[in-house]
């Protein structure tokens, strides 16, 4: 087994808050939370360290960790577009929406640049797809229609704010698709990716894991330098850059490994838990 590595000095005191991605980071590949990780999360909370799950997942996919959030009970979902109370049935308590008009503009520009693109629209109440979009997680009651129809103000779910637009391409290289999309439409919205396929996630201007986490920390009087963050994919980069201390998983995307000064074990080896166990050996801040 490998070990936690540091390219610079680790923190000298315990952090006040831990922010961790889920898929590919806290969760194992089978989407489970290991016993070691459950114990580490509980020990951190008992030591007075707040834990925030910060994920691209929607609220309805948070059941896997609902039993492991303590204290405040909050999680940041949809890449920062929603703050969710896991203690209250995954109720969305804050929304940072993608304006419908902005989403329509992105659809138009990506269709021109990549004609084989297909879209899904993630709203607060569920996700809706185009017919060509890969429906790996088709939710009951989802609408199937062109994105332009799904985003009209006459659509059946038009009263539900849009959290994300998803854009999928069957043949483009994922990072090339992301770069192209940012070039043609990045001035309208935030583009990122967390899937191994060419699947882009589009959020409203200024919306990211980092900006929503920063807001949650400000409400608690927690400074960036008092935060330790964990991640593995491009949608984690802003959060990892914002936090005072950041760790990339051994299985992380090359850009994430290059951007972080600390590396830990892979998600399959409980890399987050390994770091938390080390952090708990440090003296409390202050």
TrEMBL record:
Protein name (database record): Cof-type HAD-IIB family hydrolase
Species of origin: Streptomyces chitinivorans
GO MF: hydrolase activity
NCBIfam families reported for this sequence: Cof-subfamily, HAD-SF-IIB
InterPro entries found in the cross-reference section: Cof, HAD-like_sf, HAD-SF_hydro_IIB, HAD_sf
Gene3D superfamilies: 3.30.1240.10, HAD superfamily/HAD-like (3.40.50.1000)
Stored SUPFAM superfamilies: HAD-like (SSF56784)
Record key words, sorted: Hydrolase
